[in-house]
């Protein structure tokens, strides 16, 4: 049974309306998105460095490691973080830089893919290069996330390490997920016109 037409807004996607954003967020959408992007990026790297510090402290051999009376006895760590753990985050960061260095106005110009035709010919070469760079940037982001999941699976889950080591892999995946969310937030924020720019165009 459907609701009467007068009891809902036909332009809405969901029957239940979502609460509106606070006024300070609506009036400063661009700034809020940029700050949110920076916070997500910092949080991703902070989680990774936290796991890196734990790995470094665990693998540091104490001076009295060979002393049989040492309590608790020092045990060599089963695994430690290496360059393989760094690589996905570095790829994702490079992808974020590439994506957000592209001039959005070139991608939004009239013509688009229809004027560009196939990759072989026609269209604006600057727009074609911008789209290619955008693809490369998102491929780096996706590769970073896929690489972190691969490192988690192969190095920390399949290897059946003692409890606690899987945190290194989960930190790597979280880092790449936050970098990807940060990239999307920054992309949307940069595509949004600020109130100041809007007033200038009037």
The share of residues in extended strands comes to under 5%
Distance between the termini: 47 Å
Q: In sequence order, what are the helices and strands, one letter per element?
A: HHHHHHHH
Mean pLDDT: 81
Family: Belongs to the UPF0220 family.
Subcellular location: Membrane
Transmembrane segments: 32-53, 132-158, 170-188
Membrane topology: Multi-pass membrane protein
How is this structure best described in words?
This protein is mainly alpha-helical and 202 residues long. It has a domain at 45-56 and 82-193. It is 65% helix and 0% strand. It has helices spanning 23-27, 29-59, 83-101, 104-108, 112-116, 125-157, 166-191, 195-201. α3 (83-101) packs antiparallel against α6 (125-157) and α3 packs parallel to α7 (166-191). The chain is elongated, with a radius of gyration of 24 Å. Residues 110-120 have low confidence and may be disordered.
